[in-house]
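Q: Okay, next protein. This is CUB domain-containing protein from Macrostomum lignano. I've checked the sequence twice, so it should be correct. Can you predict the 3D structure?
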Amino acid sequence: MKLFICVLVLACFAAFVSSTCPTLYKTRSYGNTRFFLNAASNGVCGGRYSNNLRCRYVLVNSTENRRGGSVNLNLRNFQTESCCDYLTINYTSTSYRSSGYRLRGYQSNNLRYTLNTAPRSEVSIYLYTDASVTRRAFFLTGSA
């Protein structure tokens, strides 16, 4: 009975998140994973991101990252409400320490990150927005 309730709660949470979160597109070719995320609520370039987002994206999972390596991220047009909306990037570094970035406010027109990851680790992105101000949507692209 407890397992059923837990699964039901997780399914409801996943349904809530997936109905509001922008889609992360992933492709895999020649051993590389490429991804693209347009944070606009309507998927239109130049749109705005939505309020009340609680999104988690796994860019590289443990089966894709068997040997460790690097994940390259590019953020374009990154600007969020500086107090309350943010993007968090979490990963396990080659020294097996949890590492990450929390980005908020106006950062830059084009940010580039190279994450050196430990074997069998994940790279996760969290997008959190509150219920007030939204800004122009940003784009996240990258490869692993």
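A: Here is a summary of the prediction. DSSP finds one helix and nine strands in the chain. Residues 2-20 form the longest helix (19 residues).
Q: Noted. On to the next one.
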